[in-house]
Amino acid sequence: MEKIEKHTAEPQAQPVRLSDYVPGIFLSISSKKGMKKAIEKGLVKVNGQVAHTSNYINGGETIELYKREAESNLPEITLDIEVLYEDDHIAIVNKPAGIVVSGNKEKTLANALPSSLKASAEPSALDRPQPAHRLDYPTSGVLLIGKTSNVLTALNKLFENKKVEKTYHAITIGKVEKGGEIKNELKGKKAETSYEVIDTIASPKFKFLSYLKLTPKTGRRHQLRIHMADLGHPILGDHEYGLDKRMSTGNGLYLHASEISFAHPITEEAITVAAALPKKFERILANPISEKA
Fold first, then answer.
1. N or C: which end of the chain has fewer CB within 10 A?
2. For residue 288, what pLDDT is reported?
3. How many angstroms separate the first and last alpha carbons of the chain?
4. Domain 2-67 -> CATH class
């Protein structure tokens, strides 16, 4: 194992359980859940000894965080991935539709990152760059990647604190008359989406399609797809939440993560990166009609 961070415990008025003390002391892992997993995996040592969650801290102890050496049997594949932005800390790529971000399968975007990105020279560089968020299998567009352990943690905090702005574009079935907000809860949790009508498109099959700009205020699973279906205008190509007998076939889902904005976790520079619309969007958008039609 390789040691990546070290901490000397502050004096305590009374003994504190290790699992309650360690969250927040390391840059690499900030959450209590994450630290508990690290302890259970034997990646935390106290005074040179493998720690347990039941250990107590009094003050003055040396607490070290380790990472396991890279496993040589992890798959690495080559995909045609467009890199939109990259430095030693982060990268932003244009995820193709029809590729899962990560998982147990070999063909994932995560397994293509080592061959698609430059190696980081930072001390806390990850063996394999990691996505900081997810996009659905059929969704294309901007995906933010962490290349170091401390930056990946910082990016996770940005998402938790809603400091990352994401913009999507979609083509939906039917004529959406005007923009607005959808605040329907998803599985009992707050979910909020803003939508803006950009164009109305003539469609022989559906009579009308709508070209929309979508801005999620929360990040629930399948939020945009469910919210547009709730509005009565499901996203074209959505076989899970759409109109079963009227769905487009063969061209996939018309949902694209077009832009992402955030403050760089190291330089604090304002970063805005966009990914061009897929060609399948362009083919449909070549036939817009007047908003008054």
1. C
2. 72
3. 66
4. alpha beta
* Torsion sign over Cα 94, 98, 103, 109: negative
- For residue 250, give every residue at least 6 positions away whose Cβ sits within 8 Å of its Cβ, in sequence order, or none: none
Contact 93, 268 (CB under 8 A): no
Q: Which of the residues 88, 136, 230, 244 is marked catalytic?
A: 136
Residue-wise pLDDT for 170-213, tens only, equals 999 999 999 999 999 998 999 999 999 999 999 888 899 999 99
Q: What is the 3-state secondary structure (H, E, C) of the chain?
A: CEEEEEEECCCCCCCEEHHHHCCCCCCCCCCHHHHHHHHHCCCEEECCEECCCCCEECCCCEEEEEECCCCCCCCCCCCCCEEEEECCCEEEEEECCCCECCCCCCCEHHHHHHHHCCCCCCCCEEEEEEECCCCCCCCEEEEEEEEEHHHHHHHHHHHHCCCCEEEEEEEEECCCCCCEEECCCECCECCCEEEEEEEEEEECCCEEEEEEEEEECCCCCCHHHHHHHHCCCCECCCCCCCCHHHCCCCCCCCEEEEEEEEECCCCCCEEEEECCCCHHHHHHHCCEECCCC
The pTM assigned to this predicted structure is 0.75
Tokens of 41: 């995996």
Would you call 136 a catalytic residue per the annotation? yes
Specify which residues 8 forms β-bridges with.
62
Domain spans in the chain, listed from the N-terminal domain onward: 2-67, 72-160, 165-257+282-289
- Does CATH number 3.30.2350.10 belong to domain 165-257+282-289? yes
Give the other-Cβ count within 10 Å of 30's Cβ: 17
**pLDDT tens digits, 150-180:** 898 899 889 989 999 999 999 999 999 999 9
Pairing of strands 207-216, 193-203: antiparallel
In 3D space, the residue among 118, 6, 112 whose CA is nearest the CA of residue 62 turns out to be 6
